[in-house]
Design brief:
The chain is α+β, with helices and mostly antiparallel strands. Helix content is 28%, strand content 36%. The protein has an eight-stranded mixed sheet, with helices on both faces.
Length: 181
Amino acid sequence: MIINPKEFYFNNLRYIVRSATEKDAKNLSEVRLQIDGETENLDREKGEAYIDESGFKQIIKDDTESISNLFLVAEVKERIVGFSRCKGNKLKRTSHKVEFGVCVLKEYWGYGIGKNLLKESIHWADSNGIKKITLNVLETNEKAIMLYKKYGFEVEGILKKDKVLSDGNYYNTILMGRFNE
């Protein structure tokens, strides 16, 4: 699905949150690879589950055509610096919910980009009959957990010793959900 672009200004940074288009595919492939190498908060290490330009073109096409998917990008001076996705499905028993994921280049942390991608996704979901948004977050990502709670997400469960990070230790994944009555 497609939303109207929205402009934000924070700490002298101007950025736009808008729906992804197929011409974003190459940039998205590069940005995702870079972000995966900058943080352990995501599921992948750099280069794992790589999605090339044609892969992103297909995802964007599918998400644009689906009423239960939303693919957003955050753009600074025509450069993508972060993105988010809400992915639903067509199964009747779970068609009321979507799974949310977000990532932002490290140099753009602290500008509210992740927050605004989340807010726009919530607004889209609430406006389009989506009743539940779910997400997974690493237990050590305290800022993200606080943000999600601020926007109505609750802890629904914990996957114990779910991820092994570079320090060799195992960490829990927190399952969170937000239900819109």
